[in-house]
Amino acid sequence: MDVFIPLDHPAFAGHFPGQPLLPGVSLLSEVLEAVLRDPALAAAVGATPRLGAAKFLSPVRPGSTLSIVFSESASAVRFEVKVGERAVASGHFERTP
Fold first, then answer.
1. CA of 87: how far to CAs of 13, 15, 60, 66, in Å?
2. What is the DSSP letter of 92?
């Protein structure tokens, strides 16, 4: 699933002047929104999604397109986020019982 981060995204304001980058919480919000758009993934994480782990590997700059890939296991919905070929984040949401 691809998500475009516009040049004027409000999260860039003040984060950081002259070297804007997408805050981790904003990146995770985009990932969660992508999960919730997919009925099967949304059902897997339930009504109160719980983030099990997240790693931020590389900065996301204005105008980037995030490519989010999901995979499921018995205990988690895993995600990997790339910009082009560069990995920028990974982690997982715990599955609901």
1. 24, 21, 10, 10
2. E
The string of DSSP letters for 56-76 reads: E-S---TT-EEEEEEEE-SSE
Rounded CA gap, 70 and 79, in Å?
5
pLDDT in tens, 4-45: 999 999 999 888 888 999 999 999 999 999 999 999 999 999
The pLDDT tens digits for 50-91 are 999 999 999 999 999 999 999 999 999 999 999 999 999 999
CATH code assigned at 42: 3.10.129.10
Domain containing residue 21: 2-94
pTM greater than 0.85 (yes/no): yes
Cis check: omega of the bond before 16, within 30 degrees of 0: yes
Q: Name the β-bridge partners of 76.
A: 94
Return d(Cα 88, Cα 67) in angstroms, integer: 10
